[in-house]
Design brief:
The complex is a heterodimer of chains A (about 350) and B (about 325). Helices cover about 75% and strands about 0% of the residues of chain A. By secondary structure, chain A is mainly α. Chain A has 2 domains: about 80 residues, no CATH class; about 220 residues, MetI-like (MetI-like fold, Orthogonal Bundle). Chain B has a single domain, classed as MetI-like fold (Orthogonal Bundle), CATH 1.10.3720.10. Chain B is about 70% helix and about 0% strand. The chains are: A mainly alpha (about 350), B mainly alpha (about 325). Chains A and B meet through helix 4, helix 6, helix 7, helix 8 and helix 9 of A and helix 1, helix 2, helix 3, helix 4 and helix 5 of B. Chain B: Part of the binding-protein-dependent transport system for phosphate; probably responsible for the translocation of the substrate across the membrane.
């Protein structure tokens, strides 16, 4: 009898470690949130309450796990909690920033804000940012006109002609390095270039375009290069087999196939440089008038205008700065969205 | 080359077949080569023009360097200290967060969450730097004042670290605030690269670790991190490069001074090279401009070096993976 009992106890020795119930994270989460809410009711700040809830969760769940599951599982649960909270922490500033810009900026937007410039011809004329919107669009357009041909052709060289030779490798490497050029250095370059040619105190929109294109070219090259490499070699070989010269294969077969991706890359590159401030500060200057001529005189852009209003610092200037920031963010987001839509429309048909 | 057997129906088709390697090809490949070379020329041009314009800036008479310095070295060293302090604060905050988010996207989150998360982080990159500056200066700085006070009260008395947390600024426009704004700005690039290398970990390695009984974190530590190590290092370097050259956030957030101290909460701190250029360029005196361009040259070489190392590390590891 006693031996049988011994056997039965041995049989019941568990082969798996004890585990927390599946709902353990949820239970701990609810407790932590409840604790945070309690502290909120008791007069703690919102930030403090949230931080408290997160800390309680990060401490409690691993401790519970340590008691039942052992050290390794506890570490696992701790790291999972930390990794997820890293994401939460990163979202906070984004939400705060977007909320700030929308709540402060959207109210300032009206018809006159978008259609008048800073330049007053009458005393009681409303103030607007028309001149800055025009400046932003023209300078970015100039930068696009410079960067797109250079960027796309350079990518064509890298993928179609240079395949793996030393020059192509060097260019690929330097394009990567070029993506890290500080924007202010690009501005200084345009400044040094144009003042050496046209004399000191030279400002113009086209200088800004040159500076921006220095930042834009590497992005365009990278995007185009990746897209061209995705074009299947069978397409090229089929074209060659029909006797098509290489350049015509590239223009008629390869580039149209990759068009969607290339356009997406270009749009994203535009959205990246349209918010640049520092280079334009140096070379494009600032003015209160609407300037339509890229090649003559100072040109205000939205980011430079925001910076200028920030420097002034009084209440009306702050309102204008938030309004302009709102417009700028809307433009950037629309470009980002457009990039996705363009990519979908021009995506090569399958089958 | 034989003539096409059937006469082509239109002229262009005939020329397609018969003029292989003709003028069109030569012109087109020439244009492509030219575009490629123009990139090399642009990079060289940046260096050459900055050097031409800035070389005299290294050796100006003492009064040009302003009231706080007498030589170029004296002028640029505080700026370098400011640049590096802000960047290092940014890295300390951004790197763990970025690695965490990258892990969420590549390994922790189910796919339907991972895609929106990646998109949200990309949105962070799309916000223009001047908007970050505006937000940092008008909003974040004020919000961080209590945190400054707390840091000063609790960490100030500690012997060595205490020097970092001296008397806090009442306005909150400190190096620490600038570093936090910088951290948010460099977060997306570090996340994007590490996410890429994390997701390239061979599936078999991960499954082998799990099959041996590893928890998910142990799997990440034993297969993902070793595989991605060089990618992580270079992502940090690229983030550093971005932080070193970022202008507007520091320009708009920091209240500038020239007192060299270790206090990251001080009312006035040395600014960064980039911010200094943006602040001073308006005094268009030729001498000072030369000095500013010279500091810009220093910044260019610095970021070039950092980026060069980062890319070199990536390139080396890719070659190792390929073998």
């Amino acid at each position: 009898m006693s031996t049988l009992e011994e056997v039965s106890t041995r049989v019941h020795v568990s082969l798996v470690q004890p585990r927390l119930p599946r709902q353990a994270p949820a239970i701990t989460g609810v407790i932590a949130v409840a604790l945070g809410a309690l502290m909120l009711v008791l007069g703690m700040g919102v930030v403090g309450a949230i931080v408290l809830a997160v800390v309680v969760y990060i401490v409690a769940l691993p401790l519970w796990s340590l008691a039942i599951e052992g050290r390794r599982s506890a570490t696992d649960r701790l790291m999972t909690a930390l990794i997820w909270s890293a994401f939460g922490v990163a979202v906070v500033p984004l939400v705060s920033l977007v909320w700030r810009v929308v709540s402060k900026g959207a109210g300032r937007i009206d018809g006159t804000f978008l259609s008048y410039s800073f330049f007053k011809t009458q005393i009681d004329q409303p103030v607007g940012i028309y001149h800055a919107i025009i400046g932003t669009l023209l300078i970015t357009l100039g930068a696009t006109i410079i960067s797109v041909p250079v960027g796309v052709m350079a990518a064509v060289y890298l993928v179609e002609y240079g395949k793996g030779n030393k020059l192509a490798k060097a260019i690929t490497f330097l394009v990567d390095v070029m993506t890290g050029i500080p924007s202010i250095v690009a501005g200084l370059f345009a400044f040094a270039l144009f003042t050496l040619i046209f004399g000191p105190a030279y400002v113009s929109g086209i200088g800004g375009s040159v500076a921006l294109s220095l930042l834009m070219i590497p992005i365009v090259v990278r995007a185009t290069e990746e897209m061209l490499m995705l074009v299947p070699d069978e397409l090229r070989e089929a074209a060659y087999a029909l006797g098509t010269p290489k350049w015509k294969t590239i223009v008629r077969i390869v580039l149209p196939t990759a068009l969607g991706g290339i356009l997406t890359g270009i749009t994203l590159a535009i959205s990246r440089v349209i918010g640049e401030t520092a280079p334009l500060l140096l070379i494009a200057g600032a003015t209160d008038r609407t300037n339509m001529n890229l090649f003559d005189g100072a040109m205000t852009t939205l980011p430079v205008l925001i910076y200028g209003q920030n420097l002034r610092g009084d209440a009306p200037a702050e309102a204008i700065a938030w309004g302009a920031a709102f417009i700028l963010i809307v433009i950037v987001m629309v470009l980002n969205l457009a990039a996705r839509i363009v990519g979908k429309i021009f995506a090569p048909k399958k089958g | 080359m034989t003539a096409p057997t059937t006469e082509a129906e239109d002229a262009p088709a005939a020329s397609w077949a018969s003029v292989r390697g003709g003028a069109g090809d030569r012109i087109f490949s020439g244009a492509a080569l030219l575009a490629g070379l123009s990139i090399l020329a642009a990079l060289a041009g940046v260096f050459i023009f900055l050097a031409i314009k800035g070389v005299t800036g290294f050796t100006k008479p003492a009064e040009v360097y302003g009231p706080h310095a007498e030589s170029f070295v004296g002028y640029v060293v505080p700026l370098l200290v400011g640049t590096f302090t802000a960047s290092i604060i940014a890295l300390i905050i951004a790197v763990p967060l970025a690695f965490g988010i990258a892990l969420v996207i590549s390994h922790y989150a189910p796919r339907w969450i991972a895609a929106p998360v990646a998109y949200v982080i990309d949105l962070l990159a799309a916000v223009p730097s001047v908007v970050y500056g505006l937000w940092g200066a008008f909003y974040l700085a004020k919000k961080l004042v209590p945190m400054h006070q707390w840091l000063h009260d609790h960490l100030g008395p500690i012997p060595v670290i205490g020097h970092l947390f001296g008397e806090p600024s009442p306005a909150g426009r400190t190096l620490l605030t600038a570093g936090i704004v910088l951290a948010i700005m460099i977060l997306p690039i570090i996340t994007a690269i590490t996410r890429e290398v994390f997701s390239r970990t061979p599936r078999l390695h991960e499954e082998a670790a799990l099959a041996l009984g590893a928890t998910r974190w142990e799997m990440v530590r034993m297969t993902v991190f070793p595989y991605a190590r060089s990618g992580m290092v270079s992502a940090v370097m690229l983030g550093l490069g971005r932080a070193l050259g970022e202008t507007m956030a520091v320009t708009m957030v920091l209240s500038v001074g020239f007192d060299l101290s270790w206090n990251v909460l001080a009312t006035s701190s040395p600014t960064s090279i980039a911010a200094n250029i943006a602040l001073k360029y308006k005094e268009r005196s030729a001498d000072l401009l030369n000095v500013l361009v010279a500091t810009g040259l220093v910044l260019f070489l610095l970021t070039f070096l950092v980026n060069f190392l980062a890319r070199w590390i990536v390139g080396r590891s890719e070659r190792r993976m390929a073998r």
